[in-house]
# Entry
Amino acid sequence: MAEAPTGNEVTRRRRSRSDRRRSTATTRETGVWYPKAYWPSFAAPGVLWLAVWFLLPFYVVLSVAFGSVDPAFRLAEPTFQFWWWDFSTFQETLEGFYVAPAIYQDPAIRTLTYVIVASTVCLMVGYPIAYFTARHAGRWRSLILVLLVAPFWISYLMRVYAWQSLLQPDGYINDILGVVGVEPILWLSGKQFTVILGLVYGYIPFMILPLYASLDRIQQSHLEAGRDLGAGPARTFLRVTLPLSKQAILAGLVIVALPMFGDYYTNDLLGSDATSTLGNMVDNAIVQAGQQPAAGGLAIVLMVLVLIPMLYYMRETRRAISRTS
Amino acid sequence: MSDTAITAPTTRPSRVATRRGVFGWVRDPWRKPRFLQTLTWGYLAWSILPVLIAIMFSFNAGRSRSTWQGFSFRWWYQDEFDSLWRDQDLRRAMVQTFRLAIATVVLAVPIGTAFAIGIDRWRGRISRTANFAMLLQFVVPELILSIALFLLFNKVLKDLFPLGTYAQIVGLTTFQLSYSVIIVRARLLSIGPEYEEAAMDLGATPGQALRRVLMPLLMPAVLASAALVFADAVDNFVTVRYLSGPASSEPLSVKIYTAARQSPAPSINAAATVMLVSTLFMIAIGWFLSRRVSKGDTSGADAVFTGL
# Structure
């Protein structure tokens, strides 16, 4: 990704035009004839796999969410014929968000709060770090980059587990606070602060790297131009650097926010029922046979919630694929 | 920032640099970015230290994972029942972890590579839809995909294809497939069709051009995706937890997750360390091999591993 864009851009455009030409005939410029099924046969296993193990499961979610519950055994019974779908259970699930006792309302509010606060903190802390690494790291740059990337290769589970140990009543955090005279704090007793801390810790690497990549690509000459025209450091930043990294900021926010919507494990390890999220609601419901339609319904709600950021991320991914060196 | 600065830009730097006081320091564009420097190193310590401390506690002599009670290998192999090596449960989980990860690589990487090549050359409505599904799969939150697969196995395939190892492999492969497609596809686009065309101009059949020209060029990306898929499969616990059947099909990650919610012994830290070391080892091998086979042009390999 970190390479001069201009030359590449041109060849890519030319290439895609020739691709389109190729699609009308199975003949290449070289005159080699490919049987019609030649390339599709390469993709076939993957296409089949996705159809059976990716698209079909989503249909099953709909069938369960819009199915029925066996009254005697409290077992969810999916309805596979979509013309017989029954939306009453789904409506009940939706009413859980706004009709008393509104059991999903608090988790929904908490989920949104966590996502918004944690993503904002990720950006506020991540941006200066990416900026420093791209512009001022000097000879330390390789080391800093390795350390920034390291969390990608360390399991999320282990990283949150590590914090869980540090935040124990007799853990190191309380030990350090004890030195300055703070009484031991029960961090893990269901504090929203702890859950947000965990989310920030877990997802901030995914924010820093795209920001770094984009800030690194800004050419020094642009900044010098700003300086030459009389802008001070603050103004150069606001008028040159920030606009040029706007897209990376958006992409970073989406990359960290998307998994946070489905995150139930951070709260499971660092919080309690008092801090539960929509993800926890799904996770709790799915293991109880009678609650599975509700779990399916909540999954649909979550899917709708993340639809727009998801489509944006898809577009960015497609762009990144064609831009990678 | 003021009008005088705009009229006399060339004199500004030296004037600002010599100006005293807080404002002079704030406005000096050449001052050392002490704040940013402190923040960055502080962040890195904050990011890495907890993990190192967790590794350290796998060598704790006592049962606590938060109070240091001396060094020992008790939780690694010395304790007769509860150490990682002798606890039947954890040992089985370790084997299961690697079994799942290897099976996932064996399935996801070949299917993904073929899919990337096919989708790159095959234009049509099905191809576009498949590409869309692949990208959608890449961005959908893992929880949603996992419960969808869980319901499929639990409600539809329960007798023919029950939850357990095979279901876990299917789930992991589905979850990792698009990852390997994306890595290979990016490489494919940067190679372009020219090399193959040249080979065919020189008399190679399409099959030969694919085998002897395209595949060697794709190899760095294929190896890189294998390493990354392996590492991800070892670390995965969301998909694997929903799709695990009997307790014997739970890999290390699920054991750690379950234990962490009760009162884990340091053998859990040891288990997490094994996971960490094996993913880092795999990534290192993958990085080394993919740099090696890419001969010279190493930027692509580095880009894949750093996500930049």
Remarks:
- Residues 1-29 of chain A form one domain.
- Confidence is low (pLDDT under 50) at residues 1-28 of chain A.
